[in-house]
Amino acid sequence: MDQAAERLAEVRGNIAAAAKRAGREADAVCLIAVSKTHDADAIRPLIAAGQRHFGENRVQEAAAKWPALRAEASGIALHLIGRLQSNKAEDAVTLFDAIHSVDRLSLVQALAKACDRLDRRPRLFVQVNVGDEAQKGGCAVADLPALLADAADAGLRIEGLMAIPPADREPAPYFALLDELAERHALPLRSMGMSGDYPTAVMLGATHVRVGTALFGARD
Ligand SMILES: *Cc1c(COP(=O)(O)O)cnc(C)c1O
């Protein structure tokens, strides 16, 4: 096996083990390989090893890399996991199959318009600022009910919640909080867990984990 296939097998094994410990099915967890900053040559071996879901955090970077890669393999799904400016909503809806960073009314409105105009419905997650951090994206926990209501009013179907816990804290309580918020609002999907903590996230209900470093190695 090449290195990409080895890393992929290891991450998939860890997901399966964590799912089993929690009494969950491993295939209830979608592994998103976060390919931001990595070029096509770094991404191709993972595609060859069978990986199909990829995450990027910038629309422009994704637009430069993925149309060509997509033409090389079938079944690729692209996830936007970074902050989205409202004026890039149309580009994002055109390119991505899922958007994990819906976090404010102006973006909800821009996405609703873009989805209608393009007649495309990417899967949508509301990002929640679970650690209440000033510099971080995501809607405040207290504002979540209103934002979900706004999305419903705009005709947008939100299917899940996404969070990035504070970097310097034990993540489990934040994963549990996101799971509880999703449950409370009857949302089936939870996007949580990165290279350092995805097994914990899986045990606490993640349906989507976003793993970069553990699959690609360190970013520059
Ligand atoms: C970069 C990034 C990841 C992946 O982080 P790793 O620690 O490299 O696994 C996951 N989620 C988001 C939102 C990111 O920006």
Give an account of the 3D structure.
There is one protein chain. The protein is built from nine helices and eight strands. It is α/β, with parallel strands linked by helices and 220 residues long. It has a single domain (2-216), classed as TIM Barrel. It has an eight-stranded parallel beta sheet. Strand 6, helix 7 (172-184) and strand 7 (189-191) form a beta-alpha-beta unit. The longest helix has 19 residues, at 3-21. The protein starts with a helix and ends with a helix. The mean pLDDT is 97. Residues 34, 36, 57, 81-82, 164, 194-196, 210-214 line the site of pyridoxal-5'-phosphate (PLP). One of its GO terms (molecular function) is pyridoxal phosphate binding. Its cofactor is pyridoxal 5'-phosphate. Belongs to the pyridoxal phosphate-binding protein YggS/PROSC family.
Looking at this protein, list some descriptive labels:
Ala_racemase_N, PLP-binding_barrel, TIM Barrel, alpha/beta, globular, 220 residues, eight-stranded parallel sheet, Pyridoxal phosphate homeostasis protein, 8 strands, binds pyridoxal-5'-phosphate
Write the layout of secondary structure elements.
Layout lengths: L2 H19 L8 E5 L5 H9 L4 E4 L2 H12 L6 E4 L8 H7 L2 E5 L2 H14 L4 E5 L16 H10 L4 E5 L9 H13 L4 E3 L6 H6 L4 E4 L1 H4 L4
Parallel strand pairs: 1-2, 1-8, 2-3, 3-4, 4-5, 5-6, 6-7
Helix pairs in contact: 4-5
